[in-house]
C-alpha cells in the first residue's frame, strides 16, 4: 500500500520531475562528525555493536534528521555486512579500519564461497530498515522523508574480501584479476547474487530507494572496469525489485573515480548516477542527456572552509547543474569525521535557499 511522504522532494528529483528546490542528503550523514553519534557508539561498545543492533542503528539514522532539514534518511549500516555474513570474520581495529580474518586468497577459499541466507545472517539490517521506517512515520501514517537502503557493489566488496581490508593499491585483487580472472569472476558472480538478494530484502523491509556504492571502481583500468565492475553492478540492478507495495523503487549507482565512464554507467538501468567532485556537473548533465538524475558533488573538504566559502561552493555547483530537474545535492564522497557540524548546517541551508531562489527567478 502506497504510504504518504510529507517531503518527497528526493523521490521526485530521482524521477527528474520539477521540484520547488534541490533536495540534499549526505553520504555517511550519520557518522563521527556528530557528537550524538559518538555518544551512541560509546554506549554500543564498538562500531559493529552499533551496526548490528537495530535500536542503535535506528537512533543514529535519525540523529542527522533532528539537526538538519535533510530530504532523505539513509540506513545506518556498513558495506561489509555481506562478506561478514559469508563467514570472512569482519572486525574493525581502532585507527586501522576493517579487517577480515579469512580473506579469499586461494582457489579453495573461493570455491567455498556462497550466497548467505539473508533472512538469518542479515536480519539485523532488515529489522533496522523496518524500525527506521516506522520511526519516520507519525501517528497519522505520514512519513517525514524517504528511506534509502544500500550495499557495496560486487567489485568493491571483492576488493575487501581479497585484500583482507582496505588497500592503497589493491595489488592482491588486481593480481588475481590478471593471473586468475576466473577466480575473480566467481567471487563477483556470488557477490552479485548476494547484493541483489540483500537489497531486495531491504526493499521488502521498507527501503524506498537503494544505492549501490562502487567505491573502488575507479581503481580499475579501461576495459577492466566494464568487465569486472560495471557488468556485475548491472547484473544486480537487473535482479532488483523495482516496485514494492505500490511504491516505485529507484536505484542510485555511485562509482568513485568513474567520471570517464559516466555514459556507460548511465546506461545500466539505474535512475540516478552519483558523481564525485572531479566531475563538472554541467558537462555531466549534457553527457547523460536526461537519461538519469545526477547526484553530487561537493568536495567533502569544502566543509572545513569558512561559511561564506561553503555557501559560494554550493552556489557554484547549483549554478553548474542549472535550473533543471533531476539533481540531488550531495557530497562527492562520504562526510569526513572532523567536519564541524555547524558547517553542514550552512551547506544544507544554502542548498535549499539558493535553489529555491533559482526556481523563483525562472518563474518571474
From TrEMBL:
Keywords annotated in UniProt: Cytoplasm, Decarboxylase, Lyase, Porphyrin biosynthesis
Organism, by scientific name, is Mycoavidus cysteinexigens
Any one GO molecular-function label of the UniProt entry: uroporphyrinogen decarboxylase activity
Checking NCBIfam families in the record gives:
hemE
One Gene Ontology cellular component:
cytosol
Its chief place of residence is cytoplasm
- Can you tell me which residues bind substrate? 28-32, 78, 160, 215, 333
Give the superkingdom in one word: Bacteria
Pfam families (UniProt xref): URO-D
What GO biological process, any one, is recorded here? protoporphyrinogen IX biosynthetic process from glutamate
Q: What is this protein called?
A: Uroporphyrinogen decarboxylase
Q: Where is this site: Transition state stabilizer?
A: 78
The top of its lineage is:
Bacteria, Pseudomonadati, Pseudomonadota, Betaproteobacteria, Burkholderiales
Q: In which pathway does it act?
A: Porphyrin-containing compound metabolism; protoporphyrin-IX biosynthesis; coproporphyrinogen-III from 5-aminolevulinate: step 4/4
Amino acid at each position: 500500500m502506497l504510504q504518504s511522504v510529507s517531503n518527497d522532494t528526493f523521490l521526485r528529483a530521482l524521477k527528474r520531475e520539477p521540484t520547488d528546490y534541490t533536495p540534499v542528503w549526505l553520504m555517511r550523514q550519520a557518522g563521527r562528525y556528530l557528537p550524538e553519534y559518538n555518544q551512541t557508539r560509546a554506549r554500543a561498545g564498538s562500531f559493529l555493536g552499533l551496526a548490528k543492533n537495530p535500536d542503535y542503528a535506528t537512533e543514529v539514522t535519525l540523529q542527522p534528521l533532528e539537526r538538519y532539514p535533510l530530504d532523505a534518511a539513509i540506513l545506518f549500516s556498513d558495506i561489509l555486512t555481506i562478506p561478514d555474513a559469508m563467514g570472512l570474520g569482519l572486525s574493525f581495529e581502532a585507527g586501522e579500519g576493517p579487517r577480515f580474518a579469512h580473506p579469499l586468497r586461494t582457489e579453495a577459499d573461493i570455491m567455498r564461497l556462497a550466497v548467505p541466507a539473508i533472512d538469518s545472517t542479515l536480519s539485523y539490517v532488515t529489522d533496522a530498515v523496518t524500525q527506521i521506517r516506522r520511526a519516520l512515520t507519525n501517528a497519522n501514517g505520514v512519513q517525514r522523508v524517504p528511506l534509502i537502503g544500500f550495499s557495496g557493489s560486487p567489485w568493491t566488496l571483492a576488493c575487501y574480501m581479497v585484500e583482507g581490508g582496505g588497500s592503497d593499491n589493491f595489488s592482491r585483487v588486481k593480481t588475481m584479476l590478471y593471473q586468475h580472472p576466473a577466480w575473480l569472476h566467481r567471487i563477483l558472480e556470488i557477490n552479485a547474487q548476494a547484493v541483489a538478494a540483500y537489497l531486495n530484502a531491504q526493499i521488502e523491509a521498507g527501503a524506498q530507494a537503494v544505492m549501490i556504492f562502487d567505491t573502488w571502481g575507479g581503481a580499475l583500468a579501461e576495459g577492466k572496469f566494464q568487465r569486472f565492475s560495471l557488468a556485475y553492478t548491472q547484473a544486480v540492478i537487473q535482479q532488483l525489485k523495482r516496485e514494492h507495495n505500490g511504491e516505485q523503487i529507484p536505484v542510485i549507482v555511485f562509482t568513485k573515480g568513474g567520471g570517464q565512464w559516466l555514459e556507460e554507467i548511465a546506461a545500466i538501468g539505474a535512475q540516478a548516477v552519483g558523481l564525485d567532485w572531479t566531475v563538472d556537473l554541467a558537462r555531466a548533465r549534457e553527457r547523460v542527456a536526461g537519461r538519469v538524475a545526477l547526484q553530487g558533488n561537493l568536495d567533502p573538504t569544502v566543509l572545513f572552509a569558512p561559511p561564506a566559502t561553503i555557501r559560494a561552493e554550493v552556489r557554484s555547483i547549483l549554478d553548474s547543474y542549472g535550473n533543471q530537474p533531476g539533481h540531488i545535492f550531495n557530497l562527492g564522497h562520504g562526510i569526513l569525521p572532523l567536519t564541524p557540524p555547524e558547517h553542514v548546517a550552512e551547506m544544507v541551508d544554502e542548498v535549499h535557499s539558493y535553489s529555491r531562489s533559482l526556481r523563483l527567478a525562472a518563474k518571474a
